[in-house]
Amino acid sequence: MDLTLATRDVDGTTIVAVGGEIDVYTAPKLRDKITELVAAGVYDLVIDMEAVEFLDSTGLGVLVGGLKKVRAHDGSLQLVCTQDRLLKIFRITGLAKVFVIHDSADAALAGS
Predict the structure, then answer these.
(1) Residue 63: which H helix or E strand, with range?
(2) Is the separation of the CB atoms in 70 and 45 below 8 Å?
């Protein structure tokens, strides 16, 4: 399974809609996209993971790395995720306390 990435800008926040599997093979594509956005001066990101079917430790590492990149510029990286199997990964690893996880992109944009 491949990884799809689609970005859109909403009032100064960039939403990256991710689809497919984030694993050791596809995670570099997401890391490159985040790096490219930060290099372009985009520091407020919402990673929409609603269409993600699989996430492994490499994918988690990319998300943590992305968070560090935007925080270096006083930015934010928030997640949109409602899938129990993915949320469980964030809870087990303790990353549910590190990331702000919303149930929709609209909620993330509203900051709720």
Answers:
(1) helix 57-71
(2) yes
Per-residue pLDDT of 10-68, as tens digits, reads 999 999 999 999 999 999 999 999 999 999 999 999 999 999 999 999 999 999 999 99
User: Beta strand pairing status for 13-22 and 3-10?
Assistant: antiparallel
Q: Are 21 and 54 in contact (CB under 8 A)?
A: yes
Residue 1 or residue 100, greater confidence: 100
**pLDDT for res 112:** 54
- Please provide the size of the chain in residues: 112
Structure tokens at 1: 């399974």
For residue 72, what are the CA distances in angstroms to 21, 76, 77, 109?
27, 10, 11, 21
Neighbouring residues of 52: CB distance < 8 A, sequence distance ≥ 6: 18, 19, 20, 21, 22, 81, 83, 86
- The order of strands in the sheet holding 3-10 is 3-10, 13-22, 44-55, 76-80, 100-102
Provide the 3-class DSSP secondary structure of residue 61: helix
Return d(Cα 35, Cα 19) in angstroms, integer.
18
